[in-house]
Structures are given as C-alpha cells and as structure tokens.
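User: My collaborator and I are trying to settle a disagreement about how two of our proteins should look. Neither of us wants to argue from intuition anymore, so we agreed to look at predicted structures for both before our next call. Could you fold the first one, then the second, and keep them clearly separated?

Assistant: That sounds like a sensible way to settle it. I'll keep them separate. The first protein:
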Amino acid sequence: MHLTPSPSPTARYKKVDAVKLLKDAPKVGSDVKKSLAKPCAGDEYPVEVTYATLTGGTSPDVIVNVMTCADSVGMGAYVFHKRDGAPDGYDTVYTNEQPSVYAGVNKGDLEISKQTYAAGDKVCCPSGEDVMTYHWRNGRFSERGRPYHTDYSKTTADGATPDDGTGTEG
C-alpha cells in the first residue's frame, strides 16, 4: 500500500488582523489609512495578506497589499516583522505607497511589481510592469539583481487590437 504524502506547511503562522496592523502602523500613510476607514462591501477590506519568512526571524513576516475598492489597483505594499519578545508587536520593515504597487515573494525574497501605463491606457489595461527584487541583509532590504520591465501585448484573445480611439480603420 502506497501512501501519498500530504503537503506540509512551510511555516507556522498566526493569522493577523491586517487592517488593524495597517491602521496602527506609523509608517502607513494617511491616504491608505483613510481607504481602510470602512470595508468595500460587507466586512471585506481591500487587503491581501501573505505570510513568509523574508527577514530570517523565528516567526513568518506579514506581507500586506492594499488595493482600491473600485478597481483593485495597488495603493500600498508593506512588510511587517514580528518584534522579538512581543506577542502582538510588529515593526514595519518595508513600505511602498506608489500607485499600482504589489508585493509578493519569490524564492524567499521580496518582489515588488508596479504596473506601468502609457498615455490613454485604462486602469484595467496597463502597458507593462516593472519588477524589482529585494533581499534582507544587515537588518534591511537591499536590491538584488537588476530590475526588469515587461511590455504587455495589446492584442485581445480574438486577435484584434483594442480601439485606439482615433476612429479610423486600416
């Protein structure tokens, strides 16, 4: 009889109240805090939380992305590190409040992406994306490698290109 191994968690984490964490953090800007004054719908806030070990601590770090309610565009990306000896204490070790920012994890490093828009792009449809990777070293995040940029295709699934607004046909 063969037993199929089940996935095991990569890190044990304690779920945090991300909205409270953001509201209480002094490094979170007032615009982001205002956006969290009330939920988007029901009791749903526009936050996404990831737990991962980025800073080498004994507890996983908390990566929080805050989006706009209307169109889910990134307003802020943060990394919180659990303060040693404090059961609920966290320090903000990374903050980025540039519009369209998103934080993720790639091979144990912090990956920050920012959508780029050309003139005439709609919020839903950026022209590309800039990505930078950061590695925790000597008590802070430092750039790792070089940033890269991806230009997105403007071709739709049916092969057409979106209307450029000129009203002319080829």
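The second protein, kept apart from the first:
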Amino acid sequence: MSKRIDAETLSTHVRSALRSDILSGKWAPGEKLQLTDLSGHYQTSSTVVREALTRLVGDRLVLLKANRGFFVPVLSLAELKDITELRCVNEEFGIRLAVERGDLAWESELMAAHHTLERTPYRTEGDDAQLTDDWVRAHQAFHEKLLQACAVPTLIDLTCTLSDLTQLYNRWAGRATRFVNRDVAQEHREILAAALNRDAKEASKLLRSHYETTLKAIEKAGFSEDSPTSSSPAASGSAR
C-alpha cells in the first residue's frame, strides 16, 4: 500500500513540475517533449513522466500525436479569442454566484489573496518583460478565490483549465502589456472592491474588461491569425 501511495505522490509531483514548466514557457510551442530528456531532468522513470504527460493531455497543456509522441501545443489567435470569450462568460456567471453566496470568511480570504498579490514583485529583476513566478501564482490564486464562493465545483474546474490555457499565451507574449495603456494592479483593486461591495454587475464587467484587455495587448504585440506563438516576435516573455 505504501509503495502505491509513494508512486502516486511521485506522479503528482512530476505532473505539477511539468505543468509549471510548460506554463512558464520552458519549451516553445510545437516543441517535442522527449521522454528520455524529461526523465533525466526530473530524475524519475520514463513511465512516471509518460503518466504525467498523459494527464496533462487531458488538461490540454500537452498534445499527443499518434506514433509521434508528446508536444507543447501550438496556439492560434482565433483559439485565444474563443478561450477568452468562454472564460468571460464562465466567470461572469461564477462571480454573480460568489457575490450572492460568499460569506465573511470568503471576504477575508479574498482580501488576503489580494494583499499577497499586491505585495508580490511583478517583474523579474533585470527583465521587465518577464513576470515573476511568484506573481503568476499569486495572480491565479486571487482569481480562483474570487469564484470559490460560487460553490459549483464543475464551474471552478473549468475556470482553472481556461486560466491555464490563457496563461500559455500570456507567457509567450511577453512584451504585450507595453502595447496598451493599462494598470494591472488597479484593475485588480477595482475587481476586489466590486466583489466586496456585492456588486455582481460591476464585478462581471470588470472581469471581462480585464481579460479582453490582455487579448488586445497580445494582438497589438504582433500575434496574428496566421502566426502561431512559436514565431511571434514576443514569444520569449510573458504578459498577464
């Protein structure tokens, strides 16, 4: 029994590490994920790596091609537009439920998540086009906490999946925020205020604007319909 638990723990750990590395842009879009190389990198067996990659296929963070192996997805602007719209619709509904159902504990936890986000360094030292890993995690935690009180697990799971897919683009469109006049920190403050004021309509509007502004930034950064992220001029950085 303990051996099985240890194997499950190892598989979960490798999957988490792979997920983090893919979202951080460690490999370029379209790049093949070699089992032998990954086994050496994560110091585990190819069986464990294969299992982790297979689970990430289900999350759409890895693409499995028949008889060819595992690859990092190649993404298009058209797909990003669809994902953004689906995310907006999903979270507009989720935030309305959260505002209606959230209690004092949710408010306190939401303020704490925002405080962490505000106090976490935004850009990597020496590279103002690269977001810090800590900020990316804090940002995702804040948005997850916003919807947590909706108490609909399926909606929350979908939200997390869409967030990951969006992050793929954001990580590979590094200088995008330079192309639009935005204050990301202020956007988060306004979203928080609307949620705490129990103004579902305003919170929904602000969330949509938050995500659509990122989409516009990526478009302005040179991401075109016929140019996947692997050939984008901003493919080496990140934006959010």
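Some points you might bring to the call about the second protein. Confidence is low (pLDDT under 50) at residues 1-5, 225-240. The CA atoms of residues 222 and 232 lie 7 Å apart.
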